[in-house]
């Protein structure tokens, strides 16, 4: 009897020990509920779905919106394909590629209980195109039939978008294979009838939405509160009850708050010098770890102005600059894990990206020798004006480029400008008095059109405002870009890859420098870290959970 | 007196027009296009032209300025922000109490620091207290506000955790989801901003009070009071301080007026949603209506406070009216 009792006690102790060991070694488990807090350095523009056009807002709208097509809440390749969300499957496409028919899946509801229908998407497009809304994103409507007439106030609605029962038809002005990626932009999310009637260019700060969360409140300049959508049955995760956004803290304070645990995510970033320390302290890219780094769809580059004497019909000098720029030193100014050096237009991860290895990613005596050889006889006086932003590390990066240019015989005068002035003036032929300007472009949606055609199509350069800061206008490439934009599937990728390689090899419009990383610092309170850079920067907020 | 008041009021109007006009002209001299900024990065030329028309930026500068004055005087409206289209009246209205809390709280604190230091230093010149005070004054005047603020934030707020490192809490009616609210939270969050804001002024005021008290101590009427056998505390309180602090009060009024225009550095460091931060953001966003809104408020405050000071002086000293 005594032996049995002892055995019982021993078994109980062993079981308890095993439980304790198991509890101690188990990974963090998702806790549904609680409040996730994040810090943003600057306020968002709007939270109104048809007006907001800031990356930070889109990060929030990724949790509040339901769309026809969306990026799955998954990492890597699994999250990189626009997948039907409210659409029951891929659309039926007409033979000429101009008409898309979607069937709407039942069961999606707005946070106010109303059902999501095909009309919810028609309402979104009409509200987006309504001239009284004064939406600045209307350029993304350009391929939809009747959109321009609505934007110009000549039609009350967009004739190319129609709902009939659970069917939604979208007619295009031309075959546009990037439509599905465009539909994943927040502008096109379903809106409920109440919001559809609220036509206000000042934006609406509280509205019902059909994603896992909805905007419960916004105090401009101060805070935004997101709550879980009680009617959501769409299958996406919604771990925290509330997502609280605090606005206006400097990157120093954001770092301090996340380190202390009073905030969970430094959405505005942390000081450049801290990245190395926190990686050493907490490790990098551990499962649910505090420091996560992912490449994002962007490129930092020096645009060479092909409309000015220095680079006009002077591909040898443009190549020389590409051989001379020290991409390693440029990247180092942004701090640890700032980005990956590049010599190409398209970023890795983008359809059509193919490593070409045309230019050196590390400067050596030999690369400088090669750069000088290319520059020889093509310097045209050797004077240049180099524009750069006056903020953060940009002035130091401009000085580095100035030094690199000096090595090949170009005496560059740096002109530092507030960022807003820099790109508005660079895109205006009347004020673009630069030979080179240091720029950055981040993808609006994951398609090479948003890089190649938007940034380098020469048809833009005579317009009063454009994004072709290189003033690159080569008939052959203009034609090839237009042709590539009409292709679908792998052919599209092959065409854009060829464009990228050929342009950079024969007549480089830019000296691409770095594809910068999305560097994420999280508090010790949170787990369930999933990152999908195609859907937006930072961790997916609806998936993020408290440990 | 009436003539004097009318003259001063007219001069205030001229000053107001001058300041707002200069702001307008400077803004349009900037080689930048707010419409391009507002139109978004993928905007076409047509989009930019449309936004420019919507914002009224396609009109001549003088027309825009007249429209601004008309809107201000007739509709009492400062317009809408280019950046987020919010009413500027609303934005300025929300920011004023925050800046006022910072400035008034800071002023109380700097007077609480400056008065005893200045008086004690003057009463005991070249003593240990005086020398210590001089060191404080030297540091306070020399150290940039940004540096003081960042140090306090890092050590007191972050490392030692004695106070919050940044942020603002509303005294009443905090926004939904706010992690704090009420008078206690409000004051707790304001400790570091008040301290940062007060140090610079406390140092210069301590120096001014010390000099004034020392000057007054040498006056004949102080010697007379002492000769008549008045106790030292009465001499100091009634005869010295009353006279020595008169210019300090005047300075205080003017400094508060200027500071109300926007304590940019302190608000930026501690993330206080006041006029300073509003002004800073509006400059970065090329947001003329908001920038102009803050300038209108600051100009009016300074003009009004100057006017009040001038009128009080004229009332006290009739020679000023004659001049």
Features:
heterodimer, A: 547 residues, alpha+beta, 16 helices, 20 strands, B: 323 residues, mainly alpha, 15 helices, globular
Please tell me about this protein's structure.
The complex is a heterodimer of chains A (547) and B (323). Chain A contains 16 helices and 20 strands. With 547 residues, chain A is α+β, with helices and mostly antiparallel strands. In chain A, the strands form five sheets. In chain A, strands 12, 13, 14, 15, 16, 17 and 18 form a seven-stranded mixed beta sheet that branches. Chain A has a five-stranded mixed beta sheet with strand order 8-9-10-1-11, with helices on both faces. In chain A, strands 4-5-7-6 form a four-stranded antiparallel beta sheet, covered by helices on one side. In chain A, helix 9 (315-324) packs antiparallel against helix 11 and helix 15 (475-485) runs antiparallel to helix 16 (489-506). The radius of gyration of chain A is 26 Å and the shape is globular. The model of chain A is unreliable at 1-28 (pLDDT under 50). Chain B is an all-alpha fold. Helix content of chain B is 76%, strand content 0%. Chain B contains 15 helices and no strands. Chain B has helices spanning 2-29, 34-39, 45-54, 61-74, 88-123, 128-142, 145-159, 183-217, 220-227, 232-244, 246-260, 264-269, 275-284, 288-316, 318-322. The longest helix of chain B is centred in the first third of the chain and has 36 residues, at 88-123. The termini of chain B are close together. The chains are: A alpha+beta (547), B mainly alpha (323). At the A-B interface, strand 8, strand 9, strand 10, helix 7 and helix 13 of A face helix 2, helix 3, helix 7 and helix 13 of B.
């Amino acid at each position: 009897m005594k032996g049995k009792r002892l055995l019982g006690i021993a078994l109980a102790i062993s079981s308890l020990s095993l439980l304790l060991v198991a509890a101690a070694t188990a990974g963090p488990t998702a806790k549904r509920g609680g409040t996730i807090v994040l810090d943003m350095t600057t306020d968002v523009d709007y939270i109104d779905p048809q007006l907001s056009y800031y990356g930070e807002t889109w990060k929030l709208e990724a949790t509040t919106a339901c769309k026809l097509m969306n990026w799955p809440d998954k990492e890597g390749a699994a999250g990189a394909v626009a997948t039907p969300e409210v659409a029951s499957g891929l659309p039926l496409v007409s033979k000429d590629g101009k008409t898309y028919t979607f069937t709407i899946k039942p069961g999606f509801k707005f946070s106010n209980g109303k059902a999501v229908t095909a009309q919810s998407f028609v309402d979104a497009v009409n509200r987006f195109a309504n001239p009284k809304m004064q939406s600045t994103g209307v350029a993304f409507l350009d391929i939809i039939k009747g959109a321009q007439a609505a934007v110009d106030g000549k039609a009350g609605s967009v004739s190319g978008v129609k709902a009939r029962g659970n069917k939604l038809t979208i007619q295009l002005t031309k075959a546009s294979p990037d439509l599905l990626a465009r539909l994943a932009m927040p502008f096109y999310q379903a809106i409920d009838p109440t919001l559809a009637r609220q036509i206000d260019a000042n934006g609406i700060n509280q509205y019902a939405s059909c994603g896992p969360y909805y905007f419960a409140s916004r105090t401009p300049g101060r805070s935004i509160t997101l709550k879980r959508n009680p009617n959501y049955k769409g299958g996406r995760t919604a771990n925290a009850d509330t997502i609280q956004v605090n606005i206006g803290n400097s990157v120093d304070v954001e770092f301090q708050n996340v380190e202390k645990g009073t905030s969970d995510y430094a959405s505005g970033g942390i000081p450049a010098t801290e990245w190395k320390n926190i990686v050493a302290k907490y490790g990098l890219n551990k499962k649910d770890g505090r420091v996560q780094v992912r490449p994002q769809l962007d490129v930092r580059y020096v645009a060479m102005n092909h409309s000015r004497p220095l680079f006009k019909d002077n591909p040898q000098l443009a190549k020389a600059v590409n051989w001379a720029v020290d991409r390693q030193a440029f990247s180092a100014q942004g701090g640890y894990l700032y980005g990956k050096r590049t010599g190409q237009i398209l970023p890795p991860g983008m359809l059509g990206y193919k490593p070409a290895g045309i230019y050196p990613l590390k400067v050596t005596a030999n690369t400088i020798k090669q750069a000088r050889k290319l520059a020889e006889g093509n310097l045209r006086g050797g004077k240049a004006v180099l524009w750069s932003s006056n903020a953060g590390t940009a002035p130091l990066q401009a000085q580095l480029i100035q030094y690199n240019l000096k090595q090949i015989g170009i005496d560059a005068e740096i002109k530092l400008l507030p960022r807003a002035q820099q790109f508005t003036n660079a895109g205006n032929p009347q004020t673009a008095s630069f030979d080179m300007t240091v720029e950055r472009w981040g993808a609006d949606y994951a398609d090479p059109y948003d890089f190649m055609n938007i940034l380098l199509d020469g048809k833009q350069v005579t317009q009063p405002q454009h994004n072709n800061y290189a003033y690159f206008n080569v008939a052959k490439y203009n034609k090839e870009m237009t042709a590539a934009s009409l292709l679908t599937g792998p052919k599209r990728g092959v065409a854009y890859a060829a464009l990228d390689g050929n342009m950079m090899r024969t007549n480089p419009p830019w000296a691409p420098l770095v594809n910068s990383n999305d560097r994420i610092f999280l508090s010790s309170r949170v787990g369930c870290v999933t990152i999908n850079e195609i859907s937006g920067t930072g961790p997916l907020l609806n998936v993020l959970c408290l440990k | 007196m009436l003539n004097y008041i009318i003259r001063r009021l007219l001069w205030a109007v001229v000053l107001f027009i001058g300041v707002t006009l200069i702001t307008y002209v400077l803004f349009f001299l900037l080689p930048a296009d707010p419409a391009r900024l507002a139109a978004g990065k993928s905007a076409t030329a047509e989009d930019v032209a449309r936004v420019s028309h919507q914002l009224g930026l396609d009109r001549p500068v003088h027309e825009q300025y007249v429209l601004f004055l008309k809107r201000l005087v007739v509709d009492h409206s400062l317009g809408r922000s280019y950046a987020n289209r919010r009413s500027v009246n609303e934005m300025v209205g929300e920011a004023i109490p925050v800046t006022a809390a910072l400035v008034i709280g800071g002023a109380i604190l700097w007077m609480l620091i400056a008065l005893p230091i200045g008086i004690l230093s003057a009463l005991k010149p070249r003593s240990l207290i005086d020398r210590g005070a001089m060191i404080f004054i030297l540091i306070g005047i020399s150290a940039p506000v940004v540096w003081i603020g960042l140090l306090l934030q890092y050590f007191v707020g972050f490392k030692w955790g004695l106070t919050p490192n940044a942020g603002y809490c509303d005294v009443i009616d905090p926004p939904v989801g706010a992690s704090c609210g009420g008078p206690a939270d409000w004051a707790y969050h304001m400790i570091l901003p008040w301290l940062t804001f007060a140090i610079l002024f406390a140092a210069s005021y301590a120096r001014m009070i010390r000099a004034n008290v020392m000057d007054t101590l040498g006056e004949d009427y102080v010697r007379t009071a002492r000769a008549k056998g008045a106790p030292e505390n009465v001499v100091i309180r009634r005869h010295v301080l009353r006279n020595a602090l008169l210019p300090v009060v005047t300075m205080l009024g003017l400094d508060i007026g200027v500071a109300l225009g926007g304590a940019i550095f302190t608000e930026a460091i501690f993330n206080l949603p006041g006029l300073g931060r509003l002004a800073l953001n509006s400059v970065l966003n090329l947001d003329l209506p908001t920038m102009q809104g803050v300038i209108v408020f600051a100009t009016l405050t300074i003009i009004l406070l100057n006017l009040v000071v001038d009128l009080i002086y004229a009332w006290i000293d009739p020679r000023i009216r004659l001049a």
